[in-house]
Design goal:
Layout lengths: L4 H10 L31 E3 L8 E5 L1 H13 L3 E5 L2 E5 L2 E2 L4 E5 L3 E5 L17 E4 L2 E7 L2 E3 L8 E2 L5 H9 L1 E5 L4 E7 L9 H5 L6 E4 L2 E6 L2 E3 L6 E4 L2 E6 L2 E3 L10 E4 L2 E6 L2 E3 L5 E4 L3 H7 L2 E7 L2 E2 L4 E5 L7 E7 L2 E3 L3 E6 L8 E7 L2 E13 L26 E4 L2 E12 L8 E17 L6 E9 L1
Parallel strand pairs: 1-3, 2-4, 3-6, 4-7, 5-8, 6-9, 7-10, 8-14, 9-15, 10-16, 14-17, 15-18, 16-19, 17-20, 18-21, 19-22, 20-23, 21-24, 22-25, 23-26, 24-27, 25-28, 26-29, 27-30, 28-31, 29-31, 30-32, 31-33, 32-34, 33-34, 34-35
Antiparallel strand pairs: 11-13, 12-13
Length: 458
């Protein structure tokens, strides 16, 4: 039987998701135009993890099963790898072109607490799930991806209850700094992966990282309890993160939620974030390397809710590559330490251009509703931080518009700790902020353009 070229083309298109997915609705009524990301093109082939020896009993290690399944899909030109209900203990999972990792309801991918499974031949730790220099990569479904981060992270005594402190010591571990820190080093049941606890601390890895990829989608799943950051697209193009839940304990060190690094044409929408560090964060690298990797550009952050986090929406601290054309619309921050957080320092700064933030609702903000800090020092746990002495890659927060913001119960309304050279051309319009202690705290010479902005207090 002969087929026309048109019929063959229609058959091929039927096997792939529609170009652009369901993203168009998020791009309605924007204050300026942004390019909508393209959805990954995934063939209709579907394989089950159980077909490759996978066992979801929470005991069997499934690293090999995931590897075989991904290899089989790659040989077929891509498709969906379905993970059924169960607990799928595993080491690192590496995705390839045109593959969707799909978690059915009640499926949990659980990263093994054995850290040695993640140590690569170069001595560094691999992410739980990763893809590098790939096209059309997707994670979807209703299941959970759990990084088992408590086996990696140091914890501070001052951030734990007595019960939690006792629970960590049941794992074994090592106390340091006069009992103010606990490290998962010398554990009862799993080997160390470094000669000392400080070296092992530096090996902490991200739970999901996509590097130099094009057309990436993460939708529906819950991502939790990462060893370090939870979801990191780095130098990626065409990224959609929609309807995802990201969560970890509020006291998890460096427990960032969604970190967009030097990536462009990105959508973050309808997500819920409750984490131990910054919630939704834009970073563009520090110094010459960050500048070379280019900006975070053409980003839409819309309709998300951030609960516990150091900041609801954050730029920095590294953004030497620059941040350009970002729209942040209709987000809710409830219980974050700060609301809108802009942080950097000499040596890691860059320039912001065309940042528009509108319709933000905040409540129960521990510190500042809006904060600019250009003397930020990033202090690793157990280490002493210091400011780099340089005049290169200075931060320049500029061309930022904040409108229609409502905040109840921030301790401080607006705080700027900087100079007019590093923070200028900041516009606020139609905002109301109720503060419990201080309306504003501005460094000398700082001027903010305000129209119909009310800072109220007791």
């Amino acid at each position: 039987m002969k087929y026309s070229k048109l019929a063959i083309a229609l058959c091929l298109l039927a096997a792939l998701p529609a170009r652009g997915g369901d993203y168009a609705r998020h791009y309605q009524n924007l204050p300026f135009a942004l390019s909508e990301p393209q959805a990954p093109q995934i063939p209709s082939t579907e394989l089950l993890l159980t077909d490759f020896g996978g066992v979801g009993d929470g005991v069997t290690l499934n690293t090999e099963a995931f590897g075989k399944a991904v290899a089989a899909l790659e040989k077929k030109g891509g498709g969906r790898l379905t993970v059924p209900a169960g607990i799928w203990l595993t080491g690192p999972i590496v995705l390839k072109d045109r593959i969707d990792l799909h978690l059915e309801r009640n499926a949990i991918i659980l990263m093994s607490p054995d850290k040695s499974l993640f140590i690569r031949s170069d001595g560094k730790a691999a992410p739980g799930i990763s893809a590098s220099k790939r096209k059309d990569v997707s994670i979807s479904g209703e299941g959970i991806i759990d990084g088992n981060g408590e086996w990696w992270r140091a914890v501070k005594r001052g951030k734990l209850s007595d019960v939690e402190w006792t629970d960590f010591h049941r794992m074994g571990g090592t106390d340091a700094e006069g009992g103010t820190l606990w490290y998962p080093f010398n554990l009862k049941h799993y080997p160390n992966v470094a000669p000392d606890y400080k070296s092992q601390e530096k090996l902490r890895t991200h739970l999901i990282r996509f590097t130099d990829c094009e057309r990436v989608s993460v939708s529906g799943v819950t991502i939790q309890n990462a060893p370090k950051f939870h979801l990191v697209p780095q130098r990626c193009r065409q990224v959609a993160i929609v309807g995802v839940t990201v969560r970890c304990p509020w006291n998890a060190q460096n427990g960032d939620g969604i970190d967009l690094m030097n990536s462009s044409d990105v959508l973050v929408a309808d997500c819920k974030v409750d984490v131990g560090d910054d919630g939704i964060c834009l970073k563009a690298g520090g110094g010459a390397a960050g500048f070379k990797d280019g900006p975070v550009a053409r980003v839409l952050v819309r309709g998300n809710t951030v609960f516990r986090a150091h900041g609801g929406f954050v730029i920095g601290s590294e953004f030497s590559g620059g941040i350009q054309d970002v729209i942040v619309l209709d987000n809710v921050f409830s219980g974050t330490d700060t609301g809108l957080r802009f942080k950097s320092a000499p040596g890691r700064g860059g320039r912001t251009e065309r940042i528009l933030i509108d319709g933000t609702v905040m409540s129960d903000i521990r510190d500042q509703a809006i904060v600019f800090e250009t003397g930020y020092v990033n202090v690793a746990v157990g280490e002493q931080g210091r400011m780099e002495q340089t005049t290169e890659f200075m931060p320049e927060f500029r061309d930022i518009s904040i409108s229609n913001l409502v905040c109840r119960d921030a301790r401080i309304g607006i705080s700027v700790n900087s100079t007019p050279q590093m923070v200028h051309d900041i516009f606020l319009k139609d905002c109301i902020i109720f503060c419990s202690e201080q309306l504003s705290s501005l460094s000398e010479g700082i001027e903010l353009s305000m129209e119909n902005v009310r800072l109220l207090g007791y």
